[in-house]
Amino acid sequence: MELTTPRLLLREFRASDHAAVHAFASDPEVTRYTDWGPNSLHDTTAFLAEVARDAHDLHRCRFTLAVVGREHDMPIGSTELRITSASHQRGEMGYVLHRQWWGRGYASEVARALLRWGHQELGLHKISATCDPDNAASARVLSKIGMRREGHLHEHLYVRGQWRDRLLFAALAP
What we know:
This protein is α+β, with helices and mostly antiparallel strands. The chain has 4 helices and 8 strands, in the order ββααβββαβαββ. The chain is 27% helix and 37% strand. The two termini are 23 Å apart.
């Protein structure tokens, strides 16, 4: 599966993506607000194996894709849309980019494409996303693509030895 935007290609991960994925997934600054990472080499290998299995699942509900800059054909990040309830037509999405590509509008481009695809192609009625309250850039991206802030989830995740809050955003199908 592939999605294209003016500057990006969202595609299935390949084994040859390992070094590029590890470059952003092992960066403490990139993973600062995530509930995973920073990755060891083993973590990155396990992640790529897991998403490869998901890609071949006949009842696929997790779509984890490489974010590839079209001009250089290398992964600069990762994005995911997961169907959380088929019967209620709900999903969750997220994204992460190598910090070299921050501040250029790529996150908005990725998130907008994934949101549109989830509504139009997967038939999801509601797609949500969360971000750390301290991650103002991600909150801006979610607002910018038309997601509405629905709440503040207190002590929602236990990450690296401490409880972390999350802001909840969601968008309904047009």
